Amino acid sequence: MEESLDDLYEHAPCGYLSTDFEGVIVKVNETFLAMTGFERSDVLGRTWLSLLSGGARIFHETHYAPLLRMQGYVREIAIDMVCADGARLPVLVNSVLHHDRKVVRTVVFSASDRREYERELLRERERAIASEAKARLLAQTLQQSFIPPALPEVPGLDVAGVYRPAGTGDEVGGDFYDVFSTGSDGAWVVVVGDVQGKGAEAAAVTAMARYTLRAAAMQSSSPGVVLRTLHDMLTNSEFDRFVTVVYARIADGAMTVSSGGHPCPLRVTPAGEVTPICQVGSLVGVLGLELPPSDALVPLRPGEVFVFYTDGVTEARNATEGFFGEERLQALVGSCSGLDAAGIADRVVDAVVTYQEGLPRDDIAVVVVKVAES
Amino acid sequence: MSVLQRNNVKVSGNPDGRPMLFAHGFGCDQNMWRYVTPAFIDEYRVVVFDHVGSGDSDLSAYDEEKYSTLDGYASDVIEIIDELSLKDVVFVGHSVSSMVGVVAAARRPECFGALVLVGPSPRYIDDPDAGYVGGFTHEDIEGLLDSLDSNYLGWSTAMAPVIMGRPDRPELGEELTNSFCRTDPAIARHFARVTFTSDNRADLAAADVPTLVLQCSDDVIAPTSVGEYVAGAMPRASLTLLQATGHCPNLSAPDETIAAMKAFL
Question: Burial letters for B165-204: b for 16+ Cβ neighbours within 10 Å, e otherwise?
């Protein structure tokens, strides 16, 4: 079988046209005419630009033509042509500029379906961006509900809390804290905890834990018993997650503290001496671990500082120095004399964030209680 | 990041010569001047740059608020002039950068010795109430934004750091196709909207600097009537009609462009 060159040109499976350097069409094939509905005499002598839609003309003059001049070719340019009947025809265009022949050769492929598909993808992307923003807002709103919007004024104590979500804060973490009064008996409660895991289920457990602790606090003056209530609630819930939590009840110039698997708060004396103030009991919410954590009674002396924190502090890590660790934390809080509670909490969180080059891998929660100077 | 890095400023030519500052228009980058600048390097101190958001500028410096009018771009031009301590500047602006130069000259006339405006238009959209024909309708501009959405010109987020940061890597060869006119599509879209919805007719009278309007024949972006409007509205402007057609005589007819500039200067 023999192919004729003329037929190869005229009936190529794409529109094919040649323009001079002024953009005037000097030759065009049958396929192009069939695509656009023009007669040959309509287009010969017209400029290629005049066959484009208004927006495509601007694109041609600001991108297509300069690129063609600078690199000698353009490929895969998507523009709209205007056909003989005025209808828009989305096309893909490749052009090559031949300096020696002073001609630009252009092939034109119809791209209606492809363009519709691309528009669909663009719309999908816009939808994805919008729903991501929504999810982020939801996560942040949920997260804010895990900590009190403002801490109450506690007589004789200076109390401050700082919470810093992991990474860029797009995901709901499990750290929480709370400071509240138990009402008529004049006691105050400080709670700092961490629910295992992240995401929606961890968030549900966090909310449940926080409100269970508030309710149980009204029923018992023993932190160990309150944690036991939380443990019973969790092991009987549909959730299979444990919680670490430290619970401190402040009344009559003393603090009763119990820890369910949570790092013990640190006591800092005015002289800068730092000691953990309780024993770490077992995790809360794990079936089979049912010993009620023991209560430690700690007197509150003027000027003493108590630092509650989550493992986002001590388990912060960097490549060169490993874990932030308890030693580093103890040294840091031991050198905070003169700072108020908010100043100490800020200093700890800043140090831990900086230690992780500004992008913490886990949530960080710190609550500081400072006893007033006598 | 310094102003010179931010705008990818390149200085060449005669260090003691009169400064000639070239500003590219919407779409591509400083390469738009590659056929014109060689004619001036013996006599002039030639400065080219990329607008923030274009070419090899610092994309992280792109601030939608700042660049929501041509004033933000004019501020950058003034900062470049100040940074290099340029005096008696010949400002050569193409397309939308003509108006960037007009705005900058209106703000700091003492810096500018002359303006060369290549294909200027103070307003692209028709204003029938004022009897002004810019050549485009709002629908045309929306059509352009559609074109930009469909023509990412090889941009992909994954490739962006390579594309934008490594002009020194020719082995990327094929990947660098279209690089002269490539930028983040979101930035291109915003720049397009700002450019083609701008209206700087009121600024023309305030740019009291000797000015040459270089008008192409048959320019669909900036028709001859618009060039005449610009020359008529500026205090000290003359118009030279080029035989070159299209919107980019700096690329399609550099010799004629250079000759007209030299005759004016």
Answer: eeeeeeeeeeebbbbbbbbbbebbebbbbbbbebbbbebb
Contact A189, A249 (CB under 8 A): yes
Q: Which residues of B touch A122 (CB under 8 A)?
A: 149
Place B175 in a pLDDT band, splitting at 50, 70 and 90: very low
Note whether A246 and A264 are within 8 A (CB).
yes
Q: Residues for chain A: how many in total?
A: 374
Cβ–Cβ < 8 Å for A21, A102: yes
Q: How far is CA B69 from the centre of its chain?
A: 14
Q: How far apart are CA A310 and CA A307, in angstroms?
A: 10
Looking at the DSSP assignment, which residues form a beta bridge with residue A284?
A: A243
For residue B162, what are its two tokens? 């390579």
Residue B156 is among the residues annotated as catalytic for this protein: no
Of B241, B178, B55, the closest CA to residue A95 belongs to B178
The answer to whether B51 is a known catalytic residue is no
CA pair distance B192, B28, nearest whole angstrom: 12
Answer positive or negative: Cα dihedral of A250, A254, A260, A262.
positive
For B122-144, b/e burial (b = at least 16 CB within 10 A) is bbbbbeeeeebebbbeeebbebb
B138 flagged as catalytic = no
Cα separation of B77 and B50, whole Å?
Answer: 10
- Helix (H/G/I), strand (E/B), else coil: A42: helix
Percentage helix, strand, coil, to 5, in chain A?
A: 35, 30, 35
Q: Which residues pair with A88 in a beta bridge?
A: A82
Task: List average pLDDT for each run of 10 residues in chain A, which is 374 residues long.
Answer: 91 96 95 96 95 91 90 89 95 94 95 87 90 87 85 93 83 88 89 89 91 93 93 90 94 93 94 90 82 81 95 90 92 90 95 89 93 85
DSSP state of B234: S
Residue A59 near residue B144, CB atoms below 8 Å: yes
Shortest CA distance to B23 belongs to which of B115, B130, B122? B115
* Residue in chain A nearest B24 by alpha carbon: A62
- A322 bridge partner residues: A318
Q: Are A277 and A259 in contact (CB under 8 A)?
A: no
Instruction: Please state, in angstroms and rounded to a whole number, the distance separating the CA atoms of residues A259 and A192.
Output: 10
Helix (H) or strand (E) holding A354: helix A341-355
Which residue reads 């509670």 in tokens?
A341
Residues of B in contact with A80 (CB under 8 A): 143, 146-147
Q: Is the pTM of this model over 0.80?
A: no
Select the residue of B32, B34, B221 nearest A58 (Cβ to Cβ): B221
User: String of b and e for A40-55 (b: at least 16 CB within 10 Å)?
Assistant: eeebeebbbbebbbbb
Q: Starting from the edge strand earliest in sequence, which strands make up the sheet with A157-164, in order?
A: A157-164, A364-371, A305-309, A266-268, A274-276
